[in-house]
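User: Structure with pyridoxal-5'-phosphate, tokens only please.
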Amino acid sequence: MSSSSDPTPQPAPIGFAPPFIDEATIAAVERVLRSGWITTGPETAAFEQDLARYTGADRVICGGSWTGLAGVILDWFGVGPGDEVILPAYTYCATANIVLHRGATPVLVDLPAKAGEDGFNITWAQIEPLLTAQTKVIMPVDIGGWPVPCAAWKTNLARWVASHGFTCDHPVQAKLGRPLLLSDAAHSIGATTEGAPIGKQADITVFSFHAVKNLTTAEGGAAALSLPASFDAEAVYRTLRSHCLHGQSKDAAAKFNAAGNAAWRYDVTHPGFKCNMTDIQAAMGRVALERYPEDLLHRRALADRYDAGLAALQEIQRPQRQDQGRRSADHLYIIRLPRVWQPHRDALMEALGAQGIATNVHFPPLPLLTAYAERGHNIGDVPHAVAAFDAAISLPIHRQMETADVDRVIAALHAAIKGLNLPSSS
Ligand SMILES: Cc1ncc(COP(=O)(O)O)c(C=O)c1O
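Assistant:
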């Protein structure tokens, strides 16, 4: 029985991006744990098939993380010292770290001068002047789930190469005859361009299934292969798979399952990495993928609610989520604050935190990070990325929220703005 002295019950905290682990996920993991086979095996193979169906890609390979997979793709493409990889300054460090790991040079692109010209993404007009004879890979990032129009970029790239040529010293590069368009789709599985899910527009599209992502396997990733017809997708798959497993000619399942006395024998054709996916992860992923269309609708409903609720706060710029040809995967809901509010960004986030609402900031541009500043990358070269970073707050959006939670976030934001005396038209 309650009494008048009971403290007012506090609403449950709203976390930033907690994983959604339903009973079906737990059952699938238990099934694999009891099966006697927990590393890469039949479950991973089935997840790869499921993902190929979902994305429409020719073939999908799963791995231990986006970072591991995208790294071995750079190796397969022969990226090394002297090569340049064009990528945004406004991204997570993984996008550029994998380039440094290969001794190649990340060429960082600022955001467009017009804030929000294409969400938080870079545009083709910014890429073209940066293309050189050293450019081996272009790696755009679908920030927050907003997809880069990769089909159009591929056409532009082919046109550029037709008039400028392509210098290469590696057989895979020679076969492609142009820089590789490698999409960092860590945020954007399920985003669509021209009505089709991403995965077949870029040459290779790499997804992350890290714990905070829309679709998670705790850690993990997948690469959707959609190379020109001159490439045998199955052969590329086998090569990448071997790159993910020390360069071994056979994986553990092949050694274990193959009949005959010589099944254990294997070769190591090159010193590959170790970034394969386990069947435990794949079991999580398969359940999440089956549920994913429903999850995306849920995210969309939350983001629509944010859009409607924030419309009254005219100072705040809402994220780009849809245009005639594209639809976001609504991974992040990043708002931009007006300049006069920016010195109070942390205070705003703290005020929301005091109401049990977790927020985040995506992303400090790479030159703001010591590792990149020390390598000569200058924040003065990326003023628009820095401006976007200064303005950004990512509001919570995830499967366990309901629209009433979005209303709570918006109410808390209004209260915080008032509490901090920020100038507002509402
Ligand atoms: C834009 C971007 N690229 C790459 C990654 C790396 O993904 P993973 O953690 O699966 O290696 C992340 C992870 O957060 C990311 O946000």
